[in-house]
Design goal:
three-stranded antiparallel β-sheet; homodimer; DNA-binding; 2 domains; mainly alpha
DNA sequence: ATTATTTAAGTTGTATACATAATTAATTAA
DNA sequence: TTAATTAATTATGTATACAACTTAAATAAT
């Protein structure tokens, strides 16, 4: 019988860092020291480096040449860039399959909406609402048959909502507002009206980026000395 | 005075591999051996590994766990995934800035068109036509003020046109056809008609993917055992 | 006291060596 | 002769060691 392979350390480390970012244990701007991480995990620097490179390619870390890496600092511009792409991918996915949305699809969306409603009634924490919001958007993306698109969209949503801005999410929407916004999208999806779907989803993202922008333009220095780590051409 | 830093080997290696893929020196399916590459370059495996990881994240290489990496094999599906995203990003970029396309922008596009015409008149090689085609599409993307979008679109176009399918490009369009297609896009851009621009660009991509599909469905095995190298969640 | 130069500490980039997993070749059994 | 099992080779994953660069701290000079 074939045994399970030994886990790849670099993947473990990548997961660990993502968890820490999500938890808020690692915050934007925090520097990552390879040696320290390696020691913490009881492994060498080699797999740690690979994990960091991966996380950088995913946009969660940024690097200065020979000066190490830190958790990505989200300037208002970077937030906008990510949101524009999220909005584009999600709205277009939904618009393209608009006519072929099934009853089952609608039920899936509705069940998430109902969970939101229930969470409000039960006075649940914001965390849960945010989680349900992500679930809703993921359900939309799952309508696409393009795995490359789904992977990309996941990446952007990770950068913005679930990870780097996790701590801000709870402050820009009340649970009721969050429910309203997703209700509107749900209704649009049920209408199967391509243009309406596109418009509603984009409006939602535009509103989010507008509300988020306020949180980031205060403390941080504008000088984005981020440098691409690899050749462009 | 500050001297230029010593070049980062991993970046050099990444450039080298990209060049070889572009030249056709490395073809889809060719396996990459770290040790061999390191020896060729006269360096150790460490920077080579980093370069390979980068190229994998860019979609140019694919890896099997513990079985190394090879140049990405483009199945018809993968081609479609990439083209859909290229079409989406490019058409949406153009559509969003439709009303604000300046005379200067139009001149830039026209100059490329004219170069194409001249290349035909001079009986130039297909390579040059393909190059001008890329230039045209890049000019469209440069209308976007979203660098993240531009970087992504560059990545997709790299995977498809300039690199992995370079050898096929010359066979799916005659120079005259290529000129016609870009002429149509140019006219749409000049009209500043958002919907028309969107439609024309998408039609161009749809036609390309259709014509390309034929080339890839013959020889290659369908079993895409590609594996994501890092955790999804 | 302030600025400039130098020196030292610390971190990343690279090299080498070893361990582990997988493919290929070889050997043995049916 | 063929199939299956085992040995050997090969390539990746990881560990350790060293070199180069960056940052800062400390000393010297104005």
């Amino acid at each position: 019988m074939k045994q399970f392979s030994k886990p790849i350390y670099s993947e473990e480390v990548a997961r660990l860092i993502m968890k820490r970012i999500r938890n808020g244990n690692l915050k934007p701007g925090d520097v990552i020291r390879e040696a320290l991480l390696a020691e913490e995990c009881g492994i060498s620097r080699a797999p740690v480096r690979e994990a960091l490179h991966y996380l950088e390619s995913e946009g969660l870390l940024m690097s200065h040449q020979k000066r190490g890496k830190c958790v990505t600092i989200l300037t208002p511009d970077v937030i906008r860039y990510n949101y524009e792409l999220s909005a584009l991918l999600e709205s277009e996915t939904a618009a393209q399959v608009a006519e072929s949305i099934t009853e089952d699809d609608q039920k899936k969306f509705l069940s998430i909406i109902e969970k939101m409603r229930a969470a409000i009634a039960a006075g649940k924490q914001y965390d849960e609402h945010a989680e349900l919001g992500s679930e809703f958007h993921k359900a939309i993306l799952d309508l696409s048959d393009n795995p490359l698109l789904r992977a990309l969209a996941t990446r952007f949503s990770r950068v913005i909502s679930k990870f780097l801005l996790y701590q801000h999410w709870r402050t820009i929407y009340t649970p009721q507002e969050l429910l309203d916004r997703h209700m509107r999208i749900y209704e649009a999806l049920c209408s199967r009206d391509r243009e309406r779907i596109r418009r509603v989803i984009r409006e939602h993202y535009a509103e989010s980026v507008e509300r988020l922008a306020g949180f980031c333009e205060n403390g941080e220095k504008k000088t984005d000395r981020r440098r691409a780590h690899f050749p462009k051409e």
